[in-house]
């Protein structure tokens, strides 16, 4: 998919992140493909997915463009979203339309710089590049380094952004005003109103994951809210 075509397709639209960790009940390509198909029926215009097996299953089931990543932990680095060229190559082989990678200022495994990663993608594929960042400075730096879009995915997930309020609507607004590339709102967006607000603040598109595709966590939101209220009611009766 060409650059212009992809950005036209997702402008003002919803992207759904279909991911499940190995320890989660919905883990597995068959389930993720069904989740992605449900997202497509609901109106999603693209899917964000983790791992080659899931990506291939989702592409076959939906024909939607896929923002692909590979989560891989390395002992010598905190970076885990598409951290090295090995993961880049696997995503290119899977023919994803977009590669998402950590574009924070944290040190990468093998001392591979963000610029090296971007150059490798440009030299070996036509994939677009999404830089996942955690703060304003990283977003601007990633845009100048050559990513095609920046995403606010990692706000509150780096040691220096742990205290940021989520979803990080101020970051979305700041980057949308200053960035030379489209800003994709992502990260802890839990409600339709929050998604709409992110768009109003200047996001090109909005990614929602947990609130749609991780029912065990959404269930816990409801459970915790109900329990808090139940305790308060009990205390008033005493």
TrEMBL record:
This is Putative N-acetylmannosamine-6-phosphate 2-epimerase. Keywords: Carbohydrate metabolism, Isomerase. The lineage of its organism: Bacteria, Bacillati, Bacillota, Bacilli, Bacillales. CDD domains: NanE. It catalyses: an N-acyl-D-glucosamine 6-phosphate = an N-acyl-D-mannosamine 6-phosphate. Its EC number is 5.1.3.9. The keyword Isomerase applies. It is an enzyme of class 5 (isomerase). Converts N-acetylmannosamine-6-phosphate (ManNAc-6-P) to N-acetylglucosamine-6-phosphate (GlcNAc-6-P). NCBIfam families: PRK01130.1.
């Amino acid at each position: 998919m060409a650059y212009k075509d992809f950005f036209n397709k997702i402008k003002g639209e919803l992207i759904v992140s279909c991911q499940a960790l190995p320890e989660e009940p919905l883990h597995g390509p068959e389930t993720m493909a069904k989740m992605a198909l449900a997202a497509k029926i609901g109106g999603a215009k693209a899917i964000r997915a983790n791992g080659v097996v899931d990506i291939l299953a989702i592409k076959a089931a939906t024909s939607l463009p896929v923002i692909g990543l590979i989560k891989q932990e390395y002992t010598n680095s905190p970076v885990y979203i598409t951290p090295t060229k090995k993961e880049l190559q696997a995503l290119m082989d899977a023919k994803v339309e977009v590669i998402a990678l950590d574009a924070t200022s944290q040190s990468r495994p093998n001392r591979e710089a963000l610029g090296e990663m971007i150059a490798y993608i440009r030299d070996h594929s036509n994939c677009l590049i999404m830089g996942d960042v955690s703060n304003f400075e990283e977003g601007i730096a990633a845009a100048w380094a050559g990513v095609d879009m920046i995403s606010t995915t990692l706000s509150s997930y780096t040691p220096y952004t742990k205290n940021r309020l989520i979803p990080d609507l101020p970051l979305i607004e700041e980057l949308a005003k200053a960035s030379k590339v489209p800003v994709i709102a992502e990260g802890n967006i839990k409600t339709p109103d929050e998604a709409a607000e992110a768009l109003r603040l200047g996001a090109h598109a909005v990614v929602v994951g947990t609130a749609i595709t991780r029912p065990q966590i959404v269930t816990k939101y409801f459970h915790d809210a109900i329990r808090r209220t139940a305790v308060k009611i009990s205390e008033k009766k005493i």
